[in-house]
Write a structure and sequence with these properties.
mainly beta; 304 residues; two-stranded antiparallel ribbon; 2 helices
């Protein structure tokens, strides 16, 4: 009985933290550090599913892309899963991700690679302002190693990341750490998640340190809702909300909204779907950016 009371106490404390963070998020809505961090690739939504859900994912965390949001979620994946995603983004920019997860017993391991390409850019100089005829392709490469463990009262996880960025002949390297937590709550079908991302530096610049708190609730076998509160060091706090509807066993419809208000962020909404055939999943997300254009993201996940 004593151990059970202790576990329930932990769960109540975790739930109270999340309620507090959501209730008082408006108090932290402004930030004087905007634009002071490096590692722009770390700010992108790497998961197709999360993109369709308005960017919310920290408490859902049920496929290998959880590595980018909450490493503790690796324990929610099947024994082994491989995930690949292609994201056609803005102005000729694209990025691809490859994730692998393996869980066994109380432990899980994960590996993720993400590559962003900004397309070809023509070189210009002070004397050749219209271009020298030489082109180069800037980009970034992110590699992550993750681990998670079941601690009975919660799932915990951590990731180490290596970041490489290049702009023509200039190259910058960085190192970072993530940590995450997932826990069931005293409320049936409600779980809570939290993570701290991007503890580290790249080329002497601080990585975009971000705190995320989230809740995920299964209403029934067809409907679920979730929400995240993101608090980045170098920008304003934002709220991300999403929902899933599964009318058929092989089809899930998704939608989401966020409070982001950057110029060109459009209506801050997203749509998507998931198709499920045994251990094969296909995900799609549509995210508009107003006058900057629309983005389309496709991902596949295979369990084995």
């Amino acid at each position: 009985m004593g151990k059970l009371r202790l576990l329930n106490k932990y769960k109540l404390i975790i739930l109270a933290v999340f309620v507090f963070c959501f209730s008082f998020s408006a108090a932290f809505a402004t930030n004087s550090q905007t634009g002071t961090s490096g590692g722009a690739i770390l700010k992108l939504d790497q998961s197709v599913k999360a993109s369709a859900l308005g960017g919310s994912f920290v408490a859902l965390a049920d496929d290998p892309t959880t590595i980018f949001y909450n490493p503790a979620g690796l324990l929610f994946t099947d024994e082994s899963q491989l995930s690949f995603a292609q994201n056609n983004w803005l102005l000729g920019t694209s990025y691809s991700t490859l994730c692998y997860s393996h869980s066994q017993g109380k432990d899980a391991l994960g590996l993720a690679l993400s590559r962003i390409s900004f397309g070809e850019i023509q070189e210009t100089t002070g004397t050749d302002r219209t271009g020298t005829g030489r082109y180069f392709s800037p980009g970034s490469l992110l590699c992550m190693f993750s681990w998670a463990r079941d601690m009975r009262w919660a799932y915990v996880g951590a990731s180490a990341k290596i970041l490489q960025q290049n702009l023509d002949t200039y190259q910058e390297n960085g190192l970072g750490l993530d940590a995450g937590l997932l826990s069931r709550t005293p409320i049936d079908n409600l779980r809570a998640g939290a993570s701290i991302l991007n503890l580290g530096t790249s080329g002497g610049n601080t990585l975009p340190l971000t705190l995320i708190f989230g809740l995920y609730y299964d209403i029934n076998d067809k409907w679920s809702v979730l929400g995240d509160l993101r608090m980045p060091r170098d920008n304003n706090a934002t709220i991300h909300l999403g929902g899933e509807y599964t009318p058929l066993s092989f089809l899930t419809l998704r939608g989401g909204i966020s409070s982001r208000n950057e110029e060109g962020s459009g209506g801050n909404y997203s749509l998507g779907l998931g198709l499920h055939f045994g251990k094969f999943n296909l995900d799609y997300a549509y995210v508009p950016y107003a006058e900057l254009g629309d983005t389309h993201r496709v991902g596949i996940t295979l369990g084995f």
